[in-house]
Structures are given as structure tokens and as C-alpha cells.
Amino acid sequence: xxxxxATSRQQSFTTTKEQRFPDIIATxxxxxxxxxxxxxxxxxxxxxxxxxxxxxxxxxxxxEGCFLCCCLEDCLEYHDIDMKQPDLDxxxxxxxxxxxxxxxxxxxxxxxxxxxxKDHPDHAEVQSQCFSLRSNFIxxxxxxxxxxxxxxxxxxxxxxxxxxxxxxQIKKWLEICTSTHDSCGHQxxxxxxxxxxxxxxxxxxxxxxxxxxxxxxxxxRYLTLSHCWGAKGSQKLQLTKETIEDFHRGIAVSTxxxxxxxxxxxxxxxxxxxxxxxxxxxxxxxPEDWRRESSLMGTVYANSWLNISATWATDSSYGCFTxxxxxxxxxxxxEPMNGSEKKKNWILTSTYDWSGQVEQAPVNERGWxxxxxxxxxxxxxxxxTQVAWECQQLQATETSPxxxxxxxxxxxxxxxxxxxxxxxxxxxxxxxxxxxxxxxxKYTSCQLTFSTDRLIALSGIARKINESRPSDYMAGLxxxxxxxxxxxxxxxxxxxxKTYVAPSWSWASRSGEVISSGFADRDNSTAYMxxxxxxxxxxxxxxxxxxxxxxxIKVRARLGIARWSGMEYLEKQGECSSITLLVPxxxxxxxxxTSTLRFWEGAIVLDHDGDSxxxxxxxxxxxxxxxxxxxxxxxxxxxxxTTTSQRDIYLxxxxxxxxxxxxxxxxxLLRLDLHHNDDPCVDLPEQEITII
Length: 692
Ligand SMILES: [Zn+2]
Ligand SMILES: [Zn+2]
Description:
By secondary structure, this protein is an alpha+beta fold. The protein contains 17 helices and 30 strands.
């Protein structure tokens, strides 16, 4: 019965679009310098190969349309290297890597092409683009003869991501993941269900989706969707009080928007019956329903069997599938005959693909999607060129089905640290603190349509973290990380929010990108601020990770007045050569004078763009900390460049504005460089204050 159902489901959605792999060797080419490098490459297991001697020569090859050099151009553009700038003396080289025995792939070779500054051959200022060559892409079907020719084996890869080949590749990944990946939670028995699910029915006639309440269902496996909503009003059919009856009766799949039609299509062809889509499973015109269901969103994705991501689509009218230009993105090369061994065919791809196609894709710039991606056990990304797979143990693409090489280490850190059932694998406290800082960095660089979602769209991850690391969650900060976590820093001052989202001491109160969460090297820091008490009023008392209406902290701190001048914007943070700390009047022996401490060097980082004219504010010391090691290039010896590494010690504190009733609000951050100075905090009076 199950088999019949699955088969009929698949048949009703089978696509007619199937094309043969075209002869792409004719349309993609390599310049003569790349061809020479490739000849040497086959005999090199590790080391460097000369490439273009100058940027002019590289520009020429790009002009001719060399596949590899054009990929390098994208990379140089990304790093703001202007190839037409005549005084840039650069050459390029291939760096061939020895194969990593840990790679789960066999026939793979890897190299990168980097651009060097000839004046500083040892200097780290290098831009590189990674490439991989795979022969396993052209795989013979094990059931057929191994003598299969190249042409027929190429048909495993079609020019449409909705093709049967692509769907069967997703099935293979799903099978491997759910049956062999220990860290992907394949042994999970208890199936948690969302409050509502969409069920596919009438597949043999006109396919429909019916809204089902989980109370009327047994435990079922379901798929979820990550997608961009697009501009306001671009969502046509949603679940509302008015449409809910139609949804219960069943809605023809053909009347849904393209992305949801494709979602139904993929669900059926993978052999499933149920799926969950936010705008069709949460009542969009019922604030109470939205509040309750949105706080469960993380759990919905965490318990999904597979998350389908409409990665490239900017709104629901685009759909998941795409036609790809095989002649543009992939290059076939032949390894020359080596004695009696047979010729081997390889496909050359740029591994930059993952970053461009997945990391920087429209859907992954949405704030809500970060938790959908991190918490889902596995994801099939429908990108603009191919389908990519992502789970705890495998990141793969159709061109690299056994795993991509040189994985994006940054993202791997976020994802791999959250195992599905046992949450974060942490060796110690600091790991989680660091992990949270990476999450904030990524999350706050994403877009949110409503600033009021700033806490709730991250609530699933916060909840998951709290399961393994008990700590009070305070408007986006963890009580265990106090007081250092109060020293979060924005990349850029942001406008004052129109509606209340969070207290001024929380990063969530700003719309800007958080570049530092105040993550501390605790062994080397001294805390000056003690948080005595805090109060938080939740909008939904059952969801401590969700929206809040009011919050304050009471702290004991060393309080002074900071006065600065000559703020220079460097890297968008105000580096000041002159900062004076004053003891507040009330604490001076004579009320007419203030006691001036010394002048300091440091940086002022203001939270609001409207405060840029300020030259004075209250200062409350939070802690000292060691900065990251700084590479300092000593240019005094003109012929020789020496590089030294040192760690700065600085004092971090809050800049505060005094409000009525002796309360304060945070307006920015002050960092004083201490390496040649004494710590000024010891001379400032201690006071108890409330910050809201
Ligand atoms: Zn070239
Ligand atoms: Zn897996």
C-alpha cells in the first residue's frame, strides 16, 4: 500500500523536462597558460605551479574567456583588487594540495590559484580561488557495464534541477543520512508534530493540499520549507480566518504560488505525504496564533525529516527549480594517457560555488532562516545552479555528490556544534560563549522585515543552547556571560528604533550588525561591573526567548565621565587620540572642580547615528580584556619588513546617558588602550545604578 501510494505520488508529479548533457568542451576553454599549468598539474602531488606573470597577462586571458581565469576574476573583484591599477605588481600561481586522507571521496584533486603581491612574497596578503577536479562525477551505474562510455554516464546530471536525476540524488543523500549518519539523529523514535500540517491528496486526479490538525494524525514524518516571503503583498494565498475552511477542504496544488507548488512536487516525488510551510500553517491574521506558533518554529524545523530550501528564489513566485547553463559553470578536462592506464575524464569546478550559491543566496540573508538552517537535521538547497545537500556529516552538491572539499569552515562551526538530540557538544563554558558570538555575528548581518522579530527569529537557537547550558536568557544575552557580554559592539551606528524591541544594554535594541559580542578571555580579564539584579517583562510569559516589553539591570559599577575629542573614523569605529576620564562632581572633594584622571588612547563606538556630535558621556567600566594578537608591520627599516605579534590590553566600558529617576541607558562603548598605562577604574567611585 505504501509503495503504491508513493509510486502514484511520484507519477503525478513526474516532470517531462529531461535533457542530455550537451557537448560543453566546445564552449568552455582554458587559456594557454592554464593549459600548460594543467599539464604540469597531472604530475604534481603537492607544490606550486607558475601561472600568469602579471595582472595584465591575467586580464588578457579573462578577455579571451578562460574558464579558470574568469573564476579568479570574480574572486579578485570580491577582494576589491582592481586589475587595471598599473602600480599593482602581482603574479598568480597554482598551489596544489596533497589529498586529505579524511576526504570521503576518491577521485578528487584540489588546487587553488592565488594572486601574490610580488613585493611581499611572504606576506599574507593573498587572494585565492579554490578549484577541485573530480573524476567520480562521471560514474558508471554499478548495474551496467564498467565499459560504459562517457556520454551515457553524463546523463546522471541534467540541465534542470527539477529533473528525475536531481530528485534521485536527493533520495540517495537522504537514504545515506538517515541510515548511516550517527550525528544526524537517525535513531530518533519519538516524532514530534507541529500543530498543523499540509497533506498531499488526490494525487491520481488533481493534486490537492489539505490542512490537517496534528491532533487528528498519527506521528508522521514531514518536510519543511525555507523560503523568502518577498515584498509585502507578494504572498497571495495564506492561511487566514477566512481561508482556513478552504484549506481544510483541500486546495488545488496548481493554484498555489510556484514555490509552494514545487514544494508539493518535491514532497511527493521523494515519497512523503506531509509538509509544513509557515504562511499556510500559521494563521496570518490572528496575533495570538502567530505568537504561539512562532515560538514553536525552531522545534518545527528541528523535527522535520528534511528541510527544502528555495535558496535562490527572492519570493514565492520563483519556485525551487532552475534551468542551468551547463556550458557556463562546469569544464570537462581529460587527463592524458599515462602508460597503459586508461584516459580519465574529470570535471573542473570552482569551490567558490558553495559560498556564492548557498551562503550568499537570497534565502540565507533572511534572519528567520538562520535558525531554520541550523536546527533542521538536513537540508536540500535548491540553488541557482544545482542542488546542494547539508547535514551534520555531509556537505555535498550534484557535482560533488560525495562531499565538497574545503568546506566553509565558518558555517561548519555553527552547524556542527548543534547535534540534534544532545545539543551542543561543548568542552567548556567558553566554547558556548564563542559559539553564541558567531551566531550573533551571522544573525545580525541578515535581514528582518520587522525589527520586532529580532529576538523571536532567534528564539529556537537560544532555546536549543539553553537545553545544554543552563543560564538565564536576558533579552539576547546570557547571565553566565555577564558582565563581558554587555560589551557587544556594532559595526556601524544605527538609527534609534521606532518601537521598543529590547533594553539599550541588549544588542537586540539596535538594527545594526554586531561585530563583537564581548566574548572574553576570562583567564586574562578583570571584571569591574557586578550585575546585582535584573527584571524582564515578557510579551508571552511562556516564551522566555521571545519578545519583551520592558527590561532593566541593576549593576554596581565604577562610574566616571568620559570626555573625548578628535574622533577619527577608522574602519567605522572612532579611534580617539585624546580621551579624558573625570571623576563625577559629587565625588570630588570640592564641588566646584572635577578631578581629572589622565589622557588615554582608545576608541569610542556610538550605538546611534544621531549621537555622533557627542563629546562627553557617563562611563561605567565593565572589564579589562586582552585583544586578539595584532600583526604589526614595522616599516621603519625601509629595506626590510619585520612582523611582530602582540596582544593589547584594554579596558572596556559602557557609555551611558543619564535619564530621569537616576536611571541610565547605554549609548555606546568605550575602549581604552592600557598597554602603557595604569588601569583608571581603580580611581573611579563605585556606585549602584539601573540601566534600561
Ligand atoms: Zn587561464
Ligand atoms: Zn546526515
